[in-house]
Records
---
Amino acid sequence: TGPIFRLENGIQMPGLGFGTFANEGSKGETHKAVVVALNAGYRHLDCAWFYKNEGEVGTGMREFLDANPSVKRSDIFLTTKVWNHLHEPADVEWSIKDSLRQLQTPYVDAFLVHWPIAAEKNADNTVKIGADGKYVINKDLTDNPEPTWRAMEKVYADGLAKSIGVSNWTEKGLKSLLSYAKVKPALNQIEIHPFLPQYELVSYCQSQGIAPVAYSPLGSQDQVPGTGEKVSTNKELNAIAEKKNATLAQVLIAWGLKRGYAVLPKSSNPARIVSNAKLITLTDEEFEAVNKVADKRHSRFVNMKDTFGYNVWPEEA
Ligand code: A2P
């Protein structure tokens, strides 16, 4: 279902993807959600080593493929990511192999550097947390991720990932990465919704042949600090959806696809997983009406500054 985006290396990426980030402790939820999503027609699954549920994605995908022999693994675009404390080259390789084992597949379609931050690890391979309760930053690899990117390139050359890319990177970080990359990042997965439209970063990525992919395209369920506003209760956005006889989620998904990037709506509710996959298209007027709400906004809901003890977006204070 929906548009397919062609990455610079020729790999085809379905525009509608399913986000699998789930609360820890809700065992079995991801497995069920993945089966529902694949049955609903999603052919793009977004995963990460950090989500600690890749085993469930793997069993869900396996269950679906076994029950639907006409669908092949190669019909699904599967993404995973390497977490911050695994940026040393040997760890990058270990990370993707661990993800592949859990996902029960010999390759992923995209392997991303989850954050532009490298952290130290403990001897038992867990993240090193400092006395302040925050990640202990590996300054060298954060300031110069070239060795990490070389390891990503090796994973690509070895065929463990059909494409490699990044997540949460800024234009500045991408420019630096492009200066030494032998294999260019094929994608940059970032938070995008009407309260964080990212017009400049999206255009920059598109101008460089780096496909933007939107996480939290529905704008989370959180409030904007200070104003208490929520995307989900925004009057103008809801009026657009109501007039169209669609859900707000469907409008937001359509807005992202019309802007030319893939979207990763996430839900653990079967009815919402299914309805989000019923794609609609926006007229130019409807598209502009969403743009009008988005204009000049910049409210980020996903910001790990407090956890990392490091600000990826210093310009945002
Ligand atoms: P739920 O799992 O209960 O459906 P994020 O923006 O961080 O990806 O989070 C998406 C949020 O939007 C989730 O909390 C999800 O909750 C909710 N959601 C997903 N689809 C819909 C929908 N169609 N209508 C309302 N809320 C939705």
---
Amino acid sequence: MKDILSELEDRRDGARLGGGQKRIDAQHGRGKLTARERIDLLLDEGSFEEFDMFVTHRCTDFGMEQQKPAGDGVVTGWGTINGRQVYVFSQDFTVLGGSVSATHAAKIVKIMDMAMENGAPVIGINDSGGARIQEGVDSLAGYGDVFERNIRASGVVPQISVIMGPCAGGAVYSPAMTDFIFMVKDSSYMFVTGPDVVKTVTNEQVTAEELGGASTHTKKSSVADGAFENDVEALAEVRRLVDFLPLNNREMPPVRPFFDDPARVENSLDTLVPENPNQPYDMKELILKLADEGDFYEIQEDFAKNIITGFIRLEGRTVGVVANQPMVLAGVLDIDSARKAARFVRFCDCFEIPLLTLVDVPGFLPGTSQEYGGVIKHGAKLLYAYGEATVPKVTVITRKAYGGAYVVMASKHLRADFNYAWPTAEVAVMGAKGATEIIHRGDLGDPEKIAQHTKDYEDRFANPFVAAERGFIDEVIMPHSTRKRVARAFASLRSKKQKLPWKKHDNIPL
Ligand code: HXC
């Protein structure tokens, strides 16, 4: 018996060594952790339960019978993050470059199926040279099986991808279908075709980092949601994110202990909005002052900064925040900001996370690049996402809410539950100057008359009361009491149930 037990231990030790000490040292030499070290940091200490440690590939081509490493280049299983269950796979670059064989893919599929059946998130740590070249179409079939699970799991359990090495070719499409993608600066990249192919086809000379590194994907393409300095930081941030999320679509978001008075008054908010309507202010200040303990988890911080998206807690419960940012492009809506916010709104709605919308929006960005780029279609995504969202929706207009953008930003007309405005709100078709130049075009040569018309328009519309008289604004509230009002509004909506008409699925403008 002793021998049998020690054989198991020996086999386990062998499997845990992956591709061997030399390759582990090389991995460390690149500033990267191994697949198992990453899992250890991601999960609660001692909580990891592994599956399929001894699985090997079945390929017999190109001398592959000679190398059959236990585990086949991916470590899979489940564990807990702050006591809550998650499933995880972590590709092991030290074993055949983490390349994906049929059996490697089957291991991932197994834990994804279990995650869906048991209602727990899937976290995928990607570090792979792509399809196992020796396996050919068997490898592609394996990828196809994983993609299909990504699609099936979408909206059922949260899926998070962490890119910690190469991720190229068709392999990128698994992370692309997950809810959040995190990357590590300087040691990870994602692209459909690499620099060599790019050079051959388009004659562009570009490094892997420039083409598909963390900076590119968080600042330019918006493929990734966050970029972190190293593996340790990225994994700590995944843990923080998971704390905000429900485990599945049938469970409410977690309720955490909180030590911040929900009725906390913030007098400084009474002077947040400057007197001059053209002067910007930082909307993040409002978010931080509303949040329990000032804790804000921002998503896509470096992309389309004219809109802010992320999670806070109110009375310990997760709330998704969407807010125009007057500091960037005056908080205007455009293609990028509409896409960014629409995806975030839809994530929150999938997983029963209530939505808080903070509005200061002068309209949509004009210009040929916006129109040629399809701002009509992309702007419609946000409108559509808010309209179809059935989670509790609370909106606060702090200043401008002009034109179509007023309707888009979770207005009453899209079935928002509470629409508050600060006394500084201006709900109108457009700003007073623009309005005057159109309706009093004949007086354009007379500055005095124009000034008077502008003032008349401001007096009539540069306030929240016209909308409040019609019930489009439920209450005009004091800025200093916003946290209390918003927290009470969400508390009153905890049992909200709203149904949409039956449909197979909708046809959101893509
Ligand atoms: C089999 C692979 C492999 C692969 C790497 N290895 N990628 N084995 N299939 N796809 C092996 C290497 O042979 C090497 O083995 C070990 O992993 C480490 O690789 P290195 O090249 O030494 O590492 P590095 O210099 O860091 O380069 C990493 C790399 C490079 C850039 C990823 O390995 C590479 O270009 N690999 C091929 C990438 C590729 O073309 N993949 C197919 C893409 S198409 P030894 O034993 O020598 O240490 C694809 C389609 C997916 O993925 C479609 C989905 C539908």
---
Amino acid sequence: KKYVYMFKEGHADMKDVLGGKGANLAEMTRAGLPVPPGFTIATDACREFYRAGETVTTEIQQQIDQALAELEEKVGKKLGDPADPLLVSVRSGAKFSMPGMMDTILNLGLNDATVQGLAELSGNDRFAYDCYRRFIQMFSDVVLGVDHYHFENILDQVKETRGVKLDTDLQAEDWKEVVSRYKELVRKETRAEFPQDPKVQLDKAVHAVFKSWNNQRAQVYRRINKIPDDLGTAVNIQIMVFGNLGDDSGTGVAFTRNPSTGENELYGEFLINAQGEDVVAGIRTPQPISALKDVMPGIYQQFKEIAHRLESRYKDMQDIEFTVERGKLYMLQTRNGKRTAQAAVKVAVDMVKEGLISKEEALLRVDPNILDQLLFRRIDPAAQLEVVAKGLPASPGAASGIVVFDADTADKLGHEGKKVILVRPETTPEDIHGMVAAQGIVTSRGGMTSHAAVVARGMGKPCICGCEALRIDLRAKQVTVEDKVIKEGDWISIDGGTGRVLLGEVPLIDPVLSAEFKQLLDWADEIRKIDVRANADNPEDAAKAREFGAQGIGLCRTEHMFMALDRVPIVQEMILAETEEERRIALDKLLPMQQGDFEGILSAMEGLPVTIRLLDPPLHEFLPNFEELLVELTKLRMSPDSDPVLIREKEALLRKVRALQEFNPMLGHRGCRLGMTFPEIYEMQVVAIFRAAANLKQKGIDVHPEVMIPLVGHVNELRIMRELVVEKANEVMEETGQAFEYTIGTMIEIPRAALTAGEIATEADFFSFGTNDLTQTTFGFSRDDAEGKFLHQYVQHKVLPDNPFIVLDQSGVGKLIQMAEQLGRSVKPGLKLGICGEHGGEKSSIEFCYKNGLNYVSCSPFRVPIARLAAAQATL
Ligand code: PEP
Ligand code: MG
């Protein structure tokens, strides 16, 4: 079996085998671009490595040795040859790019003898020893497990004794000293000499790269990005070219378009006299790529042409790494660039206009799940802002939170539900859990392609990089900006779109859609075949939803209207009423308020259907908490001057609260069960809906109310509730002299309703799948408790593929939906079907709904654009 491929043997479509990096190096080699030669050890070899108990099998080893011999032959150098040593880089590269998650080693092949050879060949001692110390540091960190900060400490000490600030100020003798102290450190830490045999170095490096597939940060990254664990990584071995040979050398990273905005312009950074990791690690702050034009005009022109060629070849924005060695350009990597949602949309739409890709292709290019970045909030322009510093706008969006200085604290506070902003000098892949937990990230060093910037963009989190005005003191846990001191726990806000760091918490506002985004969504609307509605409970949300393209309201939860501060006392009065008569008095007060609510929503949705659900939650949700009330009452009783009337009132309230307490409230007295036992509540709501409809109709406003009965499990419940609704509709028509249209339907959110959907359909004009409750009742998982108690672990350990409250469980809950569809439509072929649980805004669930004949999905207003795109993708 073939496990090792020379670059010239592969091509771009071999990502499965060669990994992304290997496949693209092969493709560039094939296209005749200046790529330093090398070979790729295939991902199969990594899988085989794990199968064989973490060893490289003889068969694979032989193929590596053979490829190495071929490489030596080709370039006319030999690994370990003191006169003319071959030096290589060893880089990981999986099928899906996992930036910075796995390991890389540069300058491999150096030892005490070859470093001399390198010095002589380059005529540059300083350079050779700089390479050697870099190699010792990287190799020791990755292969021998000696933490890199030990090395940093030594370097700092040497710089201090020499009285210099920058690495570039150190001379050959200084680097020699660094090298010998590094070797001493390795001896002390590993109780062995630093390996001098380049072949041993190579074998150990390959082993370490395979092992890095399973390091913790790679596992976390795969989990977040849903990359399968069993793919394995390829290993790329490539001859070194040196960007640190002097001022006619350099290294850089560039995107063919701006990865933040999508603007069609070469975008990136480079450093003169540096090696690749200097750019990415954010240790020195690089220059913008446009400045390369002045420093190396010929190289700039050549690079620009190659960039353009690569983009046309891949028909996508490229992220390119390059090195210049003594005035000659080399391409080290190209890949489809990671980008913000804003850039993804703009690049896709622009490429259609440029004739590079089709509309369908453009629609498939944008992952709906990242679009919420565009729908992110930004800072209210009217707000008073106290800008304390400005850095690079590395990832757009705005956020407020308390400052924390390390990833572990961010992670801990994040899990406690606190909003945090992670502030670091720079981030490394070790900080990833803190970045996940944070609302946003700020670094004081590093550029737009630094780790923090790349990772934050991928996560869709606001991020500011290279904010050099911040003087971060990690030990004192504070940051100083000019004369201001910000301590851990203080509030700050960041605006990743402009790079501004602000003091305190600032008001955020809703986003507006760009022209390209609208264009893409219009294309989506042309081809999608399932409607998108929104879940909205007030006129503002309804208007927002409509602006985002909602085709109606799929769920208006009326209980939210009961929770308004001024209404709670009346709602409580209704609940506490001892008799129906008393209850009706309270309901009469609520009626005009509800009618106003419905008028607002129905007119905001003029011409479109509005599904209004009658009261659903258990009534105790509107009452004070039992324990708190008990404490309050005890205090009143103990205090000698309490008002006895007040005490009696509180006692009555406490009794009522206790009476309403249930062991399983979500399975208790809620939904249509309330309507069955207190029909007067539903009557009031229905009258409010119909009076609103009649009233608007009289004003010439086109309204389409759809009354929805929640939590039905038996057809008789729906039959009785339907009679109530019809009776009230007739009464209102009579009383107002105004006819109006309406429909009556039910939620399918109890398994029994799905199982008996044929019977239920006889009483329903529509079904709306309440997949939040349907998931809860099908799994028997409490939707309020499961997440924190065990579901998190279930997902982490892959007991379940996803959280079923987010991603519809197609094989279980989905089967009930399919059954309800078939049974319902067999009785009533035109039965309208929709979904209004959270899943209505989730990509894979939307696809399921489309494939199973639902007429619409309904989701929160901010997810409407996402759903429009996902619905289009479902048809492609
Ligand atoms: C549902 O159960 O899916 C639903 C939409 O209703 P709620 O979330 O209000 O229970
Ligand atoms: Mg429900």
